[in-house]
Structures are given as structure tokens and as C-alpha cells.
Amino acid sequence: MTLPKDAAVWFELPVTDLDKSREFYQNVLQVTLIEQEMGPGKVLTFPVADMQSGVSGHLYQGKPGNDNGPTIHLGTPSSLEDSLERVVANGGKIVSEEIEIPGGRFIYCKDPDGNSIGLFKGN
User: Fold this and answer.
1) What are the b/e assignments for 39-55, b being 16+ CB within 10 Å?
2) pLDDT tens across 10-69, in order?
3) Where are the domains positioned within the chain?
4) β-sheet bridge partners, residue 99
5) What is the rounded distance in angstroms from the CA atom of residue 117 to the CA atom of residue 106?
6) CA distances from 40 to 60, 61, 99 (A)
7) Element containing residue 85 per DSSP (H, E)
8) C-alpha angle with apex 22: 37 to 66, nearest 5 degrees?
9) N or C: which end of the chain has fewer CB within 10 A?
10) Element (H or E) spanning 56, and its range?
């Protein structure tokens, strides 16, 4: 048996309003989401340095999870503190204190739809 290169290969976050969610994630992560027609409709894909081999995911129009849903951790391009200010300014919530791990630090947040996200900043 050959193990996969990465444990996670793709993620999907359901949102109630694609335009509102585009604004939230673009403002918080300081990126431009890529609009694509994929599967049954329009999605907004998170850009990565290498779209051919990097792990990414997208937002799609759907029913958001509940408090028991999975958490996706997203890298932030600026300081964790600056990113957290943008979470609150764009309608999200911070739900934990900073957590330090060997590779960096992160904080749990909720997007405006209540999806659980972790914002991560590596060392």
C-alpha cells in the first residue's frame, strides 16, 4: 500500500451567500478567490502557490454545517493579530485564545455562516 502525499486533498465550505463569503475570505486572507464553474454550479476557489500540486478548496452555495462540523485551518499571509482584526471587521467571530504548536500558532474562528475555521501562522 502506498500512502497519499497529503492527508487532506481538497476542502469544501458551504456558504449561504457566495458574494458575502467572497468578501469575508478575501478581506481576512488578503487573497483573490478564483471564480469557477465546477460540478453543479459556481464555486470560489482558494488560490495556492502551485495550483497543480498544492492543496486547496472552495466555497460553494449550500447549507453551512453546525457547531459539530469539521474545522479547516487556513494559512494567513500577514500577522495572526492583523488577520483576527479582519475576521471581526468582516462579520466573523473569534472563538478561542491563541494556541501554540511546534510549527506555529493558530486561533479558532467562525465565518459569518458559522463554519469553523482556524487561522494559522507558521514560524
Assistant:
1) eeeebbbbeeeeeeeee
2) 898 999 999 999 999 999 999 999 999 877 789 999 998 887 888 889 999 988 877 667
3) 10-122
4) 106
5) 10
6) 10, 10, 38
7) helix 80-89
8) 95
9) N
10) strand 56-61
For 89, the grid coordinates are 471587521
AA letter at 95: V
Place of cell 486533498: 9
Could you give phi then psi for residue 29, rounded to 5 degrees? -95, -5
Superfamily of domain 10-122: 2,3-Dihydroxybiphenyl 1,2-Dioxygenase, domain 1 (3.10.180.10)
How many C-beta atoms lie closer than 10 Å to residue 27's C-beta? 16
